[in-house]
Amino acid sequence: MIKKGMRRQIVLHYIFVVFVALLLVEVIFLLAIRTYYYDSVYSKITTHIGTAEDFLKYEISGERSPNQLQKLLDFFEMDYTELQVLTQDGNMLISSTGFQPDRTITTSDVPEAVGGSVGRWVGRQPGTNESVMAVSKLVHINGRETYVIRYVTSMERIDSDLLNLTLVSIGIGSAVMAIVVLFSFGLANSIVKPLKNITAVSAQMAKGKFTTRIKGDYRYEIGDLASTLNYMADEIIRSNQIKDDFISSISHELRTPLTSIKGWSETLVSGGYDPEETKLGMEIISKESDRLIGLVEEILDFSKLQQNEMKLSMGRVDIKVLLQETILNIWAKAEKKRIHLLLECDETFFIKADANRLKQVFLNLVDNAVKFSPEDSSIVLSAHRLPGSELAVIVRDSGIGISEAHLGRVRDRFFQVDALNGGTGLGLAISQQIVELHGGKLEMDSELGKGTQVTVILPMTEEQAPEASKEEKPL
């Protein structure tokens, strides 16, 4: 007995379906063969009756006599078949077998013949219990006398042949079922064994052994499942590695400002410093505190985005003004590297957005551009309309660029192209999610050594910009 499980279900269902199909085919086939043989006998008898009637051209007159009935037997007699001449009431007058005609025929073929059709009855012959077919037809003799001609033929040989054919069909069906059983076991094993292997490996992965892999050249959906689980394990290992790198990086990022704050705090507490040194220490403490706040806020923003808890305060935003504010905020940092920030936006564009969050995106993009651009270079911010009521805001630099290998991962969380430049590796991941919350998308194009272009595509509002206020003319 097969124990419960998928293998049992597959085998039983497969066998059941094939068994029902075979049973239907064999039943239909055997019924069709039986109908064919029986109809052939019936057709042969009816054809013979028609032929005999055509040759019946002379009149049998006078009183009914055995001689006249014998002539009917001579006209309608048929080999291997008993011919009976009956009255319309079913009383037998004469039979080709010579038996004493002292009985009445009550089978259904006689009333059918009297009714004007060719009667047919299949059943067991009284007395002998032999399987027979009876065919009856009403015959008129020159309009004077009417008789029922009845043929009775044995169906034993045909039934015997049909029985043999049935046994052969059952044998063939059994052989087919045996093959199907073997095939169903093979099919079930081809599905169940890989699944058992996948289940065992999945159990190992659930215990934290992510280096375990599903081995085997599996096909179709099972192969897809194995590939997906292996890919999932690779992603978990990669995520764990990114998490470890992030913890290491953020620990370093937090330690550096905390060390400066602690050092200058202890120094200032000890006293004895002139006002200039005290002012310098306080500025360093303030700067490093702001840096810590920025790191913490970046981590909190990412946590909110991951948990879908970030709420946007949507309003009507002038993109040109927002880009001008971004340039003013980054200007001091760019000036230290003698980097020129240029704005190319002649038109006024309005969109429905959260101004603070969108400004956070542009600040991050421009800050990255400044961080990875050489001295005496330029960073261009531009905005232009796209087909379909969309707006494209582009930040383009001529910095170090990003390699093709890193370009696809640069927007992943915690990923950093150059860890030496500091940061959490969350800036671009947060920026992309904020843009997507606005119904837009963030695209990046870069070539190593030639620079990077980041395009933010946002839907524009259908509202028209308000008319500019007219300048007051002096009186």
TrEMBL record:
It is found in: Cell membrane. Residues 249-462 form the Histidine kinase domain. The chain crosses the membrane at residues 12-33, 162-188. Keywords: ATP-binding, Cell membrane, Kinase, Membrane, Nucleotide-binding, Phosphoprotein, Transferase, Transmembrane, Transmembrane helix, Two-component regulatory system. It catalyses: ATP + protein L-histidine = ADP + protein N-phospho-L-histidine. CDD domains: HAMP, HisKA. It comes from the Bacteria. It is a multi-pass membrane protein. SMART domains: HAMP (SM00304), HATPase_c (SM00387), HisKA (SM00388). GO terms for cellular component: plasma membrane. GO terms for molecular function: ATP binding; phosphorelay sensor kinase activity. Its EC number is 2.7.13.3. Pfam families: HAMP, HATPase_c, HisKA. Residues 189-241 form the HAMP domain. This is histidine kinase. The lineage of its organism: Bacteria, Bacillati, Bacillota, Bacilli, Bacillales.
